[in-house]
Amino acid sequence: MVQIVLNLKGICYEYVEEDLHNKGELLLASNPVHKKVPVLLHNGKAIPESQVIVQYIDEAWSGTGPSVLPADPLERATARFWAAFVDDKTEEKMEAAAQAISAMEALEGAFKDCSVSVGKPFFGGDGIGFVDIVLGSYLGWFVVIETMIGVKLMDAARTPELAERFKMADAVKGVLPEDVDKVLEFLQTFLD
Length: 192
Description:
elongated, 192 residues, 8 helices
């Protein structure tokens, strides 16, 4: 976001990549509250947080390149409202996706411990059991979620054991929703 605005305004800058697993002293000193990127350093002062930086750039270089915020106060307030909305909702979805992925990985581990390690194909043992049914009933919804937010909750790398056996069972075939568009259409009726 910040680099886009700097490029849009034609402002020369130096981009410094930060190792987010081993944060440097400059980042920690420049953004002591959140300790995260991005941070703009301008005239020896640190400006943290993407939206704050974008607004700062727009004001500090107001005579350079196009303005990214409207001149009219009401339109500017409206733009800030919707930008905050996008940030909030996107962050919520990313956090939810991260939690769901973490839950799927925990289930994968439990499945390996409880079933695979003792040679059983399902949580329920040799046949589908309670946990398999509860988890399996969400498999169609996981595909819809993946379509909506672009994050795979289950994939061959993270959860190789969980979904495939359940989907192949005779009792399941033809029951799970497979038409993602139809499920999205169904969901839309609740959102309207």
